[in-house]
């Protein structure tokens, strides 16, 4: 009877949905595993691509983990964490996005039986963190430096890294062709941190082998007015003037009110307009520039004026392109035509307007500062070129990373097997439950070689057994053996030049462990009534399964 007298405590708003405890954890793990299963098949050189089309009807074909995760539009709150780590891996190192998602999902999958058996997740988290620290130390220890080589040698080695990245992509068939191009582009910009100094321009049509690298800037011809055809289309060592002003006759109709007492004065006003623009144009010509670019419009009057004086001009140049010309040609963008000194003019060896496929391109090559490069990509379908661009972006990032950190590890699952072995060995020295957890972590790392085999149609169990045997060798000579994607056996990844920058692996292990630990540390999800409708059906279905899905009673918090 006494219990009936007790007033009910209402903590949360009516309609709040909470789910907590073990069931909640397991349901989160299931969601993450499901995400892992989606990207699983894209890993490696034999990985498949995903075609994703959204409600707007745009179609994307991609092999890039980050791109796929972004487009999947995941609504599950826990699984969203995996999207975030894929994105951060993409912006941090540029490659290894599938790897990071797959590893996180696998860590969680290995943790699931322990959670179901009642292990407290904090124990797991602690062991996972230890294992991750050990693993990263080991990667650093095993990494091989490419420092101290000659430029030519280094270029060759970097091209190998780029080729490894590209081998899993649509353009993998032409990886030699593109990897040298990427290395040249990265070498061209030197130590500059600004990634946008490497431009990628897409021109549909033609063969992908028709793609080429410009050691300078190239951009699509801008909209031009009559008179443009009379302008010269090629210069040797021209002076380049970069402007951020309009060279157009402003008609008086725009916001202008003029009161005249004498109609004859009208002509003087019109003349003044003309004088202003002619004055501007004269100053441009006097500067000695042969190429005039402006971010704003260059009208028909100016176009004709320049044409009469054998000067090339282009208006409405995209800001990004103009800045790249400034960086490469050594000029400064001007906001006024007064006092143009020679220092603000840029130059390049050759400027020309050229036909590329169905488009005309303005190309500045042989730029003095040499700090830019542009890759002009050709290819059949739009989707193809877009994926090629994403792949090249990965490769560019990888080469830049390798130039900066200059240590590499063997790919093809070799480094993963080696760390796995190391952790297993280490776990034997530990007493207590932690031994099991570290062992599971070690097992999870094997997902990379296993998935590489699965995706290529090899017998994963067989290959993994061979790899374990090789890596277990006392002499340590098997340490760089990984999956041989061509024969279905195992091979020395170093000897085959399947290399990855060490930072890709380090970042992937770190991010995946953090994500797994984060998800393991969540034991309760509270959904307030407002967000419910926004979250959609899918989330509600997945999350509602947790224990204690009732409304706002008995909130237990740690
Ligand atoms: P991610 O998005 O994680 O970079 P990828 O689809 O690019 O995923 O696959 C990368 C994996 O494929 C790496 O583990 C890498 O070592 C492996 N790999 C790449 N090229 C080869 C190759 N030629 N032989 C074996 N493994 C390779
Ligand atoms: Mg990759």
TrEMBL record:
Protein localization: Cytoplasm
InterPro entries listed in its UniProt record: Chap_CCT_eta, Chaperone_TCP-1, Chaperonin_TCP-1_CS, Cpn60/GroEL/TCP-1, GroEL-like_apical_dom_sf, GROEL-like_equatorial_sf, TCP-1-like_intermed_sf, TCP-1_chaperonin
Main location: cytoplasm
Assigned keywords, A-Z: ATP-binding, Chaperone, Cytoplasm, Nucleotide-binding
One Gene Ontology term of the molecular function aspect: ATP binding
Segments of this protein annotated with the region Disordered: 529-558
Role this protein plays: Molecular chaperone; assists the folding of proteins upon ATP hydrolysis. Known to play a role, in vitro, in the folding of actin and tubulin.
UniProt subunit comment: Heterooligomeric complex that forms two stacked rings.
UniProt protein name: T-complex protein 1 subunit eta
């Amino acid at each position: 009877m006494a219990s009936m007298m007790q007033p009910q405590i209402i903590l949360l708003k009516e309609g709040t949905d909470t789910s907590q405890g073990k069931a909640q954890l397991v349901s989160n793990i299931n969601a993450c595993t499901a995400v892992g299963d989606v990207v699983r098949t894209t890993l490696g050189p034999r990985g498949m691509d995903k075609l994703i089309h959204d409600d707007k009807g745009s179609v994307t074909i991609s092999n890039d983990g980050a791109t796929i995760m972004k487009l999947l539009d995941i609504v599950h709150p826990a699984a969203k964490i995996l999207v975030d780590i894929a994105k951060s891996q993409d912006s941090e190192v540029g490659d290894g996005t599938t790897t990071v998602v797959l590893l996180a999902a696998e860590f969680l999958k290995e943790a699931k039986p322990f959670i179901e058996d009642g292990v407290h997740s904090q124990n797991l988290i602690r062991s996972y963190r230890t294992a991750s620290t050990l693993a990263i130390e080991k990667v650093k220890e095993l990494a091989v430096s490419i420092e101290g080589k000659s430029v030519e040698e280094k270029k060759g080695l970097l091209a190998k890294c780029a080729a490894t990245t590209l081998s899993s992509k649509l353009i993998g068939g032409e990886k030699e062709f593109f990897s040298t191009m990427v290395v040249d582009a990265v070498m061209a910009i030197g130590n500059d941190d600004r990634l946008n100094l490497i431009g990628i321009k897409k021109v549909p049509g033609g063969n992908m082998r028709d793609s080429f690298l410009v050691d300078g800037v190239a951009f699509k011809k801008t909209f031009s007015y009559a008179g443009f055809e009379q302008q010269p289309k090629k210069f040797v060592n021209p002076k380049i003037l970069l402007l951020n002003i309009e060279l157009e006759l402003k008609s008086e109709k725009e916001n202008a009110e003029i009161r005249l007492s004498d109609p004859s004065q009208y002509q003087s006003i019109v003349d003044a307009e003309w004088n202003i623009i002619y004055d501007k144009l004269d100053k441009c010509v006097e500067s000695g520039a042969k190429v005039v670019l402006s971010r704003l419009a260059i009208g028909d009057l100016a176009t004709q004026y320049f044409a009469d004086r054998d000067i090339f001009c282009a208006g409405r140049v995209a800001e990004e392109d103009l800045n790249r010309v400034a960086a490469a040609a050594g000029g400064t963008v001007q906001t006024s035509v007064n006092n143009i000194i020679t220092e603000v003019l840029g130059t390049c060896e050759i400027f020309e307007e050229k036909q590329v496929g169905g488009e005309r391109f303005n190309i500045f090559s042989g730029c003095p500062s040499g700090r830019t490069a542009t890759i002009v990509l050709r290819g059949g379908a739009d989707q193809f070129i877009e994926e090629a661009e994403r792949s090249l972006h990965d490769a560019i990032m990888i080469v830049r990373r390798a130039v900066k950190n200059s240590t590499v590890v063997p790919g093809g699952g070799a480094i993963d097997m080696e760390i796995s072995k190391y952790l297993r060995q280490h776990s034997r020295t530990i007493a207590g439950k932690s031994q099991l957890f570290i062992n599971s972590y070690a097992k999870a790392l094997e997902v990379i070689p296993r998935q590489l085999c699965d995706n290529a149609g090899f017998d994963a169990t067989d290959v993994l057994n061979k790899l374990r045997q090789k890596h277990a060798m006392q002499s340590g000579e098997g340490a760089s053996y990984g999956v041989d994607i061509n024969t279905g056996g195992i091979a020395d990844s170093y000897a085959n030049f399947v290399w990855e920058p060490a930072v890709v692996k380090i970042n992937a292990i770190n991010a995946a462990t953090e994500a797994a630990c984060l998800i393991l540390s969540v034991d309760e999800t509270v959904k307030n009534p407002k967000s419910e409708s926004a979250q959609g059906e899918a989330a509600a279905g997945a999350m509602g399964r947790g224990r204690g899905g009732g409304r706002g009673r008995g909130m237990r918090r740690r």
